[in-house]
Amino acid sequence: MTPFCSLLLSLSLVATNQHVLSAPLAFLLDEFQTTAVPDYVKTYAPLVWFHPEEHYFPSDIGAQLQHTKPEINFAVVDGYPTPLTLDNLDTLNAQNGTNVYLTSIDDITKSPAWLTGVKPDDSHTSKGTTSAAIIVNDHGNGHVDAFYMYFTAYNWGGRLFGQDVDDHVGVLMHLHYVVTEVVANCIKDWEHNMIRFNNGTPTQVWYSQHGFGEAFTYDCLEKQGDRPVAYSGNGSHANYATSGTHDHTIPNINLPGMGILTDYTDQGTLWDPILSAYFYSFNASTNAFTAYDPSYPTAWLRYVGRWGDQQYGNDDPRQHELLPGVSATARFTSGPTGPEDKQLNRTDVCPVAKGYVCDVRTKIGA
User: Fold this and answer.
1) How confident is the model at residue 306 (pLDDT cuts 50, 70, 90)?
2) Under 8 Å between Cβ of 108 and 187
3) Which residues contact 335 (CB under 8 A, 6 or more apart)?
4) From 56's CA, which of 112, 173, 273, 350 has a CA 20 to 30 Å away?
5) Tens-digit pLDDT profile for residues 110-148
6) Is the peptide bond preceding residue 83 cis, with omega within 30 degrees of 0?
């Protein structure tokens, strides 16, 4: 019997003998119940396959701040804390936070080394980095949602109409460009899986992809042991349940073969996100994050601004629009919001998005 179980048994016997559990003792039990990551959150955590040709791997969340400065409308925010860290990032919320962009200090067209992240090693860890955040929302009555957030610093533009495009620039985001150019790149990327549990049993899994994603029953998914597999799109890092080609021209519908907008997935490098992660609980009633380990920073989770550069204007020599006047076809688009904005208190396993229906598939490839 573990020491923890022995302690609980002793406390239970004391309570039984005294017919009443004192308030301090109840508080002690609550502390034990809330300070440990639920075992099933790790037991059923996804494993992520990167494509054999992937160049841009998980990046350290905190280290990225060393390469950025906060800007609004391309002007540096006055009086921001230096150095900017995961412990003070939320102070930017008072500076018109939703309009803040964590802008690269370096010229990203020069491909600074930090964009590539850290390739997972033979133990499947991105060694020396913390590149994932696992966030647990306990709704009560055995209903728990666990979010597995993955961070990368760069997104390659990919392929369009089956042709390789310029891959020397581009950061975060998803879309692709034509023949020799990259479109809709941006600095930094947050992708995620979410697993819905019922009394510790996984029932449904969400895969984020570009503007939306796909949901599946847990039972139908490919697994390694008990752990569902996610395939990361080459360059785009969109999450898929299968390897192969994914024509995502029509959101939420992945057609086989090559299309206008295509992601490619395959078994190249395997990553275990829980080996390089912070773990948190999320209280939806107070919108508060609590670290399971007190050494984990929490302030950064409250940051409401953008992780990455603001979309460059057309007067910027780095910028180009495939379709003039159509902002969405720009070579560089604005960086994404962080975990705080990923609808952590969902009714369905899918996030709510206008025009989309939460279709939980019962077989992969459907």
Assistant:
1) very high
2) yes
3) 101, 102, 171, 172, 173, 186, 187, 188, 306, 307, 308, 309, 310
4) 350
5) 889 999 999 999 999 999 999 999 999 999 999 999 999
6) yes
